[in-house]
Amino acid sequence: MQQKIAVQDVTTFIGKEMGLSEWRLVTQDMINQFACATDDHQWIHVDEEKAKKTPFGGTIAHGFLTLSLLSTLAYEALPELEGAAMGINYGFDKVRFMSPVKTGARVRARFVLDDAEIRPSGRVVFHYGVSVEVEQLKKPALTAQWLIVAVMEEKSSNL
């Protein structure tokens, strides 16, 4: 069961780790599907034979595939905000691709709440420091600051 936090408690979590996802296997099929969806067929991602001759020893995931995985990793790792109807991606700051993700590697995401703004509209803007870790590597694949807006459910005025 996903942990829930109340809006009034959000700021008490600033500076704390809010979630750590499960490990996720990055497969060649996943990479190929991402290449098709984005029309990015650079050989280092999709040509297994040619990629064997590189220092990576095989294909690697697109950096943007690694970034895109944050949505699903966040969904499984982050607590739910009580009364939120949905979360909306508000953008990223300081995205850095630090290490390649080799095909067959497992990754997970770590989320630290850097800041939270409770807006007059009732929306909450979360500022997460995120890192995507690669199993058995010290250096993360990716680091970024991610902004997510929680849109609150409408209160019914009908009694």
From TrEMBL:
Source domain of life: Bacteria
InterPro entries for the chain: HotDog_dom_sf (IPR029069), MaoC-like_dom (IPR002539), NodN-like (IPR039375)
Record-linked Pfam families: MaoC_dehydratas
Protein name: Nodulation protein NodN
Domain MaoC-like: residue ranges: 12-117
